[in-house]
Amino acid sequence: PIIRREDYQAPAYWIRTVDLSFDLDPAKTLVINKMTIERNAELPVQSLRLDGEDLNLTRVMVNGEPATFRVENDQLVLDALPDGPFTLEVRNTIAPEKNLQLSGLYTSGGGFFTQCEAQGFRRISYFLDRPDVMAVYTVTLRADAEKYPVLLGNGNLVAQGELDGGRHFAKWHDPFPKPSYLFALVAAKLVSREQKIVSRSGKEHLLQVYVRAGDLDKTEHAMNSLIASVVWDEARFGLPLDLERFMIVAVSDFNMGAMENKGLNIFNTKFVLASPATATDADFANIESVVAHEYFHNWTGNRVTCRDWFQLSLKEGLTVYRDQEFSQDMAGEASARAVKRIEDVRQLRQFQFPEDAGPMAHPVRPEQYQAIDNFYTATVYEKGAEVVRMMATLVGRRGFAKGMTLYFQRHDGQAVTCDDFAQAIADANPGSELAERLDAFKRWYSQAGTPQVTARGAYDAAARTYTLELAQTGTPNPGQPHRLPSVIPFAMGLLASDDGSALPLQLADEPGDTGTHRVLVLAEAEQRFVFVNVDREPVPSLLRGYSAPVHLDAALADTALLTLLQHDSDAFNRWEAGQQLALNRLLAALRGGSTQLDAAFIDAMRGVLRHPTLDAALKELVLTLPSETVVAEELGAEVDPARIHALREGFRLQLAQALRDDWVWAFETQAPIGGYSPDARAAGQRALVNLALSMLVLDATASGDTVWPGRAYQRFKDATSMSERFGALTALVNAHAELAAPALERFHALFADEALVIDKWFALQAGAPEPLGEGAGAVFERVRTLAQHPDFTLRNPNRARSLLMPLTLMNPAAFHRADAAGYVFWADKVVEVDAFNPQLASRLARSLDRWRLLAEPYRSAAREAIARVAARAELSDDTREIVTRSLQD
Ligand code: ARG
Ligand code: ZN
Prior knowledge:
Blueprint: E1 3-4, E2 13-23, E3 29-39, E4 48-51, E5 56-62, E6 65-66, E7 70-72, E8 75-78, E9 86-94, E10 104-108, E11 111-115, E12 135-144, E13 150-153, E14 156-162, E15 167-178, E16 185-188, E17 191-198, E18 204-211, H1 220-237, E19 245-251, E20 258-259, E21 264-268, H2 281-297, E22 305-306, H3 312-331, H4 334-357, E23 368-369, H5 378-411, E24 415-416, H6 418-427, H7 433-436, H8 438-441, H9 443-446, E25 452-460, E26 465-473, E27 488-496, E28 502-503, E29 518-522, E30 526-531, E31 538-542, E32 551-553, H10 558-567, H11 571-590, H12 599-609, H13 616-622, H14 628-635, H15 641-658, H16 660-669, H17 680-703, H18 707-718, H19 722-735, H20 737-750, H21 755-766, H22 778-786, H23 797-808, H24 812-815, H25 821-834, H26 838-845, H27 858-870, H28 877-887
Parallel strand pairs: 2-12, 18-19, 19-21, 22-24, 25-32
Antiparallel strand pairs: 1-23, 2-3, 3-9, 4-8, 5-6, 5-9, 7-8, 10-11, 12-15, 13-16, 14-15, 17-18, 20-21, 25-26, 26-30, 27-28, 27-29, 27-31
Helix pairs in contact: 1-2, 2-3, 3-4, 3-5, 4-5, 5-6, 10-11, 13-17, 15-17, 16-17, 17-18, 17-19, 18-19, 19-20, 21-23, 25-26, 25-27, 26-28, 27-28
GO molecular function: alanyl aminopeptidase activity; metallopeptidase activity; zinc ion binding
GO biological process, one term: proteolysis
Domain Aminopeptidase N-like N-terminal: 19-182
């Protein structure tokens, strides 16, 4: 069934309180759910329909008396109910150990865990399982004391004690009304790291991170990240921790990254556990940002939640924006902030752009869905965050903080919409560009697709004017006749073409106002901006900091891009210029132009690498070519993944060879000094050194030299941190098969008991660049073999993803094969996983979203594989929605 946004209706009943009790047993858990309910007086009298899924219903009582009820398509229906408030008691049993879809209450590693967003609560008990029904929960857990010594729930612990038969209990009460998707419980054998903190108000809070006994030494970074998050939210937005106790629990079987359950966040172990020996710098950074993300949801998501699931970006876009800002603040200096911004934009282009151009394209606030779990997307999250960022740009930093304050004044404790949020930000900033154009701005919520902005500039030396013409286009949503213009904050500056110095910006119609950086607002299909008193020929620096999520076509000449790369005060645009230079060359080569990199490009890259003051992290980003996916999207049709791969690898080798001495210099001089610290600066230095090593091994392999591969192997063996060790291993796996084999074996033996490291071991091999010529096809064959490895299982989502995603999503040349074997493998795995975990299967199903971009024979073969999955009689709603949309024109 298709659910539509326009069909929203308020609930016919309100559930005010919930008293839940659980007798936990893996095979058969008894759930007793006592609710106090009131009719919604604003609607006509109607039946009460409670959602339920895979429940064994044993009893239904109204006001303490057995009630008449029926069960109709997964709903418990009660027709005749008292007019005033009443109590409803529902008893049912469930089988957590059989719950392999990991939604609702399930077992993992001998413990009990829950995941209720979006619709998992109905798999625990009958309920009005929708976010606008908010209730106060009291929860009693009973379980074997030996097997499950730790019993956790939302809110505060109000009682605990022993029971007969070796069992014990704990009773939790959460004073904040919440929707069912924020419910959580944990019963397991765990230990915790604890920390007491005192917030500004003087209140004391207990922070806890719960993990399995052997993992306690890997929780320090998560705890530090949590403390930093609490401090940051209070300082930046005045939002304090509102709970006596805040808990994070790590679980190794988890469909997503983490979940913001009130007071009891449940996390994928991947986003909690880290030690220098087992986690890379990227892992440390991800933990910091996911811990922050979930913590920030406590206000943006929990205190103010979504009215319905179409509003998902209300909490997700805003919370991603907040975690991005947090990570930037944690990174420190301006250049490190820019690095974080570049990483976020890279993610957007790698995952959200393809989504927005493919069969799953949807607005930030979707209009319809079949399975809501399919809409936890890069569009709702990352593009949603860009929409919030644009609002912040239009009202300014202080204006945005004022808007947040008004948002909470108006809506604390409510379930609201994206409109309510935008209105609060605008109303707090009367006269701002946002307030003046709010309706037009909100098209960002309703129109899918990435707008295309064309920028053309002309300098008139005689008149001393520079005219910038901006135009925007885009494809309309299905069912909409044409696309209306978006409101695009367009940050820019002008650099002198001779020495790159910043030129003053003075618009013809705004005399007197000068500065060297400003935000134009493009709100029409076409607009012209005339700058006056421009003394020197300028190079425009456009869309600085990536001020709007658009495709920009500025058609800048190489000379202009080189000026920006060298001189722009906006570090983001320096990187962007370098990417554009590389992309121009890749695209030209694909269209039959030269496959040899020119001296100007090589010299520019050398200039960046050797630059005396640029951040190592920024250097590493500039010196990394655009990904094969980004190149394919830019090409837009007739994509031959093998060709893109061959050309890009060819360029990489040329960079390795031409800058050989410079890579040696970087490797030998740019490493951080001192012991391991995951801070942004040291991480950036390690990233650059790892890139240098990769380039040196690549160059050596091509020339038959053995020194650098040997050094890489040595470094792999002697490394003192995972970042170093994995960097060296990557260099070997990507370019030196002979030494890669023993290194991989050694790595596996060393970390046999570290599940998250074994995930890396699988991922590295599945994501390795396909050899050119002779050995082509080896990576895919290796993945097929690894799928039979004793350590491999589809049951654990991290492990399944570790092998399947790097191949199908990140390694186009290995996945797309003329013999279609990759697609057959994909279809088999989608079907196999779908039988027990639809959410995981439907993610995997999306790897072929962009099949229409492909050239033949890939295109037909890919369509056939999708059609084969779609033809299955038994398929979850989740996966069916993906493959059906994929095949629609
Ligand atoms: N709200 C969680 C987060 O953003 C993600 C929950 C995802 N759940 C799902 N069924 N897709 O941190
Ligand atoms: Zn979230």
